[in-house]
Structures are given as C-alpha cells and as structure tokens.
Write a structure and sequence with these properties.
With about 300 residues, the protein is an all-alpha fold. It has 13 helices and 2 strands. The protein is globular and about 50 Å long.
Length: about 300
C-alpha cells in the first residue's frame, strides 16, 4: 500500500509543479522577462517546489537525513541526469548569455555555504534565514543583470491574459505540491523502515529523483525549442533554490542535522558536479561528450549508493 501512496503522491507533486510552472511562465512572458531569468527564477523556483515541500515536511517530522539528502540528491540529478541527457540528445548547444562570467559564482556559492554552515553538524534556524537571504540576493542580481528585455508576447495578449484563471491554477498547483509532499515523505519513510534502508538513501535515490522530474521535463521541452539559456537557467537556478530556499526553509522549521563523515561521498559528489558545471560553462562545452561524462558521474554515484544498501 505504501508503494501506491508513494507513486500517487509523487505524481501529485510533479503535476502540481507543472501547473505552477506553466502559469508562472505565462505571467513572466506577459511582463516581458528574458529566457535565462525566467529559467533561473520563475521556472527554477517552480520546479524546486517538490523538493521544498518534501524537505519542509521531513524537517517538521524530525527527519533531517531525508530533508538534506533530498537537496544533495536533487543537485546531483539536476546536473548529471538532466544536463547529461539533454546534452546527449541535443548535441552542440549555443547560449546567448555568458553563463561563466555572470552566473558561475552563484552556482558554487550556495553549496560552499553548505560546507561552512553544516561543518558543526547542524544547520540552525539562523543559518536557514541567511540561506533565504542569499536567494533574495540572487533574484535581485538576476533582475538587475538580465541580458535582454523580451517584448510582451502577442500570443499572451490574444489570449486575453486572465489573472483569475492564473491564480486558480497556481492555487491548485500549490495545494497538490503540499499534499503530495506530505504523503511522499510519510510513505518514503515507511518504505525505508520496511527494507531496513536509511532515510538518507531513500531521500537521495527515490525522493530526489522524483522531485527532479519537473526540471527534467522542463529542460527537455526547452531543448526541443533550442532554448539553451532556459535549460541552464533552470538547472543553475534550481540548484541555488535547493540549497537556499529548500534547506533554508527546512532549517527554519527545525534545525537540520548533517553527518559529513557518513555521507561524505554524496556531498562531495554534489560539489564536484557543480565545479564541473562551472568548468563546462567556462569553456562552453555544451555537447554530447559532456553529456556522457555527466551520465558516467551519475552511474558512479548510484553505484556507490547501491553498494551501501
């Protein structure tokens, strides 16, 4: 029964996030916001809603391992799986924005802060609040450093943009995300206990993979349209949101315990993949070879996790 609950709750999480993303994009295009900024803010925050809801509920129930591993795992899947598959499928990709010059520091900064605030084994409410402030600073940076101003879409005008309709769909999406997250955490914890698997592994493998599906779907759709800036904005923004908003909000609900000794491989894998992403951006290596390397890194992480079970 727990498996059915887990699958349905994950489906509600993902579908709810889809509603939020679609309506948020509609709002963004209506007001003329650039592709990268949409990807790094509206879409990134929308696709991070499942992680946020799952980690907050896990934190509220005192399940720190589940809350933290969800963020670490999502960061790994976002880079290794999502970008790996997209780069392999799309081949050589070109960006309009200089990702390395403008955004590499923001890609690295949140995970480096994680090492600092979690070094003593706990992320306090105060440190969680600092993380939320970092996300605020990132959004401010993006809005002040947009590459271009996009003209208001004629399609949106023709559709007679309706705030009431958009608000209702947003509300439905948020409700589905919150309810789905609650049942996801509960069912995942039961499955972990039944199999004698740690909550860290369940969060890293099942919950993180499931909550990364919105990023995966959005990135595939953007790849079909050749919108590389949206893809990279989504992934970088989502990873920033994972560490700032997701961990920050979860820590403010309940201080989070972090075991660097026991989970060093997974935590350092997330850091290494982030450094690799910055290297790729610096050299504009948006191609199939990079995608294969990312997939191999994912296989290495999964292999290590399976051994630990």
């Amino acid at each position: 029964m727990e498996y059915i609950v887990f699958l349905f709750s994950m489906a509600a999480l993902i579908k709810g996030a889809d509603y939020v993303i679609d309506e948020s994009e509609l709002i963004a295009h209506h007001f003329g916001i650039s592709s990268f900024v949409i990807g790094a803010t509206i879409v990134a925050l929308g696709t991070s809603l499942p992680e946020m809801a799952a980690s907050i509920f896990a934190s509220a129930e005192g399940k720190s391992d589940l809350a933290v591993s969800n963020v670490i795992g999502s960061t790994i899947f976002n880079i290794a799986l999502v970008l790996g598959v997209v780069f392999i499928m799309a081949g050589k990709m070109i960006t309009q924005r200089d990702i390395f010059q403008k955004d590499s520091a923001w890609a690295l900064f949140p995970i480096l802060i994680f090492f600092v605030v979690g070094f003593d084994g706990i992320i306090s409410r105060y440190e969680g609040f600092i993380y939320l402030c970092v996300m605020g600073a990132y959004i401010l940076f993006l809005t002040n450093n947009a590459d271009e101003i996009v003209e208001i879409s004629e399609d949106v005008d023709d559709e007679k943009f309706d705030w009431t309709r958009t608000a209702l769909w947003l509300l439905l999406g948020f409700v589905m995300v919150v309810v789905g997250a609650n049942f996801t955490v509960e069912s995942a914890s039961i499955i972990a206990r039944n199999f004698g698997v740690s909550e860290w592994v369940i969060g890293l493998m099942l919950v993180a993979l499931g909550t990364s599906l919105p990023e995966f779907v959005v990135s595939l759709q953007a790849a079909k349209k050749g919108n590389t800036d949206m893809i990279l904005g989504n992934i970088i923004g989502s990873n920033v949101a994972n560490f700032t908003v997701v961990l920050g909000a979860a820590a403010m609900v309940n201080p989070l315990k972090v075991d660097f000794t026991l989970n060093a491989f997974d935590i350092f894998s997330a850091l290494i993949l982030t450094v690799m992403l910055v290297f790729v951006a610096a050299n504009k290596l948006y191609n199939r070879s990079t995608g294969i390397v990312f997939i191999l890194m994912l296989a290495l992480v999964l292999g290590n996790t399976i051994k630990a079970i």
